[in-house]
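Posted in: Protein Modeling Q&A

I'm a second-year student putting together a small comparison for a lab meeting, and my supervisor asked me to include a predicted structure for 3-methyl-2-oxobutanoate hydroxymethyltransferase. I've never done this before, so apologies if this is the wrong subforum. The sequence is pasted below exactly as I got it from our records. If anyone can share the structure token output, I'd also love a short note on what stands out.
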Amino acid sequence: MSKITLSKLYEMKKSGEKIVMITAYDALFAKIFDDEVDMVLVGDSLNMSFGGHSETLGASVEQMIYHARAVRRGLKRAYMVVDMPFCSCATPELALQNCAKVYESTGCDAVKIEGGAHMADTVALLNRNGIAVMSHIGLKPQFSRFMGGYKVSGRGEEGAREVLSDARTLTEAGAVLLLVEGTIRSVANQVALGTDVPVIGIGAGAGIDGQVLVWSDMCGFFTEFRPKFVKRYLDGAELVKGAVREYAREVKEGGFPIEEFEYKQ
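Accepted answer (user: helix_wrangler)
Welcome! Here is the predicted structure, written out as tokens:
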């Protein structure tokens, strides 16, 4: 199958074909996912899922580059987006420096930046320099400590206006994709209907252009907690535990390795 491009994503939105996105952090799983999804996000969620932290804050630009390079080696088809970590885009100038580094060294198709309308100048600067931006609006995990937790966005008239204003301002500034997280379904629907830009949701209902989930959440490997919007398609942790338990039992009892797995003269 041919490489998914930005033009293809826009065609999918126009035709009403849903866009499928999933996270990946290494070449092994990127290769597994590549034929099944349209987009792959190298998310700063790795700080929680695989780093053992309680929040996404703390991931560095260097970490994101390391994981993105690995993912790139596993992908042939999917459109690849890389998260820009906390405060790496605090000013337009810093954003250009860090995003250019990520863009050049990873081979990604776009970078993702959390933030509302106040990031418009940054998005515009990156756009002028040929760097594709997915803007992340609604619930923004990098702002969770500042906001006092993970709070659903778009509630009430003021909340809805803020999300819609963010979407409009950022797309006008040049964002080529939008990610809407943790947002009231009716508001997310208005975002998708109000723009030609493909809108991907996570915890934003079924009425938008596509969906993204963290792979370790939807496959049941991350078990610390499960957000309301996550459906588990696999009990991965238990399946792996069972396999390791069987391996350990066979080693202890002398059942592995047997002749089939040994070299002979």
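A couple of things worth pointing out for your meeting: The chain has a mean pLDDT of 94. The chain has two domains: 6-234, 236-264.
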